[in-house]
Amino acid sequence: MKVIYLSSEVVPFAKTGGLADIAGTIPKSLQKLGVEIIVFMPFYCIVKENAYPVTKTDIQFEVRIGDKIKYGFVYKGFLPDSQVPIYFLDNEQYYGRKGLYNYPGTTKDFEDNSERFIFFSRGVLEVIEKLNVYPHILHCNDWQTGLVPVYLKTKYAGKACFKNTKAIITIHNLAYQGLFWHLDMNLTGLEWSLFNWKQLEFYGKLSFLKGGIVFSDLITTVSKTYAEEIQTPEYGEGLDGVLKERASDLYGIINGIDYTIWNPESDKFIIANYGMKNLNGKQLCKKALQRKYKLPERGVPIVGMITRLADQKGLDLVVDKFRDLMKAGLQFILLGTGEQRYQEFFQDYARTYPEKVAVKLSFDERSAHEIEAGADMFLMPSRYEPCGLNQLYSLRYGTVPIVRNTGGLADTILDVRAEPLSNGKANGFSFKEYNSDLLLATIIRAMDLFKDKTQWTTLMKNGMAQDWSWERSAREYAALYKKIVKDE
Ligand code: ADP
User: Fold this and answer.
1) Which CATH code fits 280-468?
2) Of ligand 1's atoms, which has the minimum distance to the CA of residue 362?
């Protein structure tokens, strides 16, 4: 089975969110299951600057963008600690700048994003042909690669190397659709006849993601609950109709996490390692975290959040009840980047309540590990959450998740009320309605249980013992690959 895995970001080369974690990990697990897999991503300038070795190949390619020919070069490397090859497509004009999709430090998209990802999507097909690979599957991810299935089934349909190729697209977050001005159709080189409401048009605009959904043989998303939710108007972001139509081809596969990176027993970023059998190290991590953020070294629970500061993450609920939380006897540490209004809100509180609130407004891997290890609870009250990774890291670190029951959070976090703790399944706290009173009540409920050290320790250990590894997800993807190739 030959699979080409396409992603606009891949850990450790370039990352803005969970997609990069997935793309940097799952191909390794798939390779171990016997899948011949090759990864492709753009050659951003950050890839050039970081320390991971890549070499220039002698492959060159051309992509027609509108009436211009653009030239590309190809670099090659391997996913670290693996034999998985990764090819980087280079074009200085498109990727030789800081930032992946938007101007660094802002939420302003690059004006030429459609061109940049048309180039990548067609470029990949050109390079596959030059490599003489005859893939069984092109596995696309999100809008940045949404046009790949469209090209595969139209312009590239007659090519020998794609004769038996199927396309899968995985939706990591339906809110990001790659919507562009309709005249960008001219840049794609695709027939204008495809620009209709059943295919590439989304309310007068060109939608890369819709193209990917319509033209792929299978669609997956990153949890079973999210796969159901996105077929409803509430979560469908306008694409619920299209997704409902493809319901029989739509699968939910929960993400996993990389336990070589996220494991308190071996984590290099934390002051003391620990595991289920010896939790002392976690106390040391907690103290170190309090010292670092200048919080008093008290036994009160620390609630951590590591998040993009975006509405999706349920921050309005937190903001709404923050004053009450200040009275509740907890410490709150936030690591995040994003919307200015949230940055200012939390900064103001950190200034007013320096003994209770600490914020770090940057993207910082080390701090993320320190918070996962040192906090007692992890807050994720998302409005929607396709999968979510931080609740899975938290489970392994014995940091009990408090989540809203949606998407991947619903599939991974079982509230203590649902089952006796002794069954080993209950692993956190959750609430259903998107409502700040419920958020507050759930945090208070967690704080109450925190006082009972025996029960709390059992709860921590329940989460720490669970297996959310990539191997599990990879087996499900491999089964799907087999299914569509066999259906041929
Ligand atoms: P999303 O992809 O929607 O942002 P996920 O929970 O799926 O949310 O993945 C977020 C990833 O990004 C996690 O690996 C998380 O630890 C990381 N992350 C988010 N914000 C920061 C930050 N400020 N510093 C370090 N890591 C962060």
Assistant:
1) 3.40.50.2000
2) 23
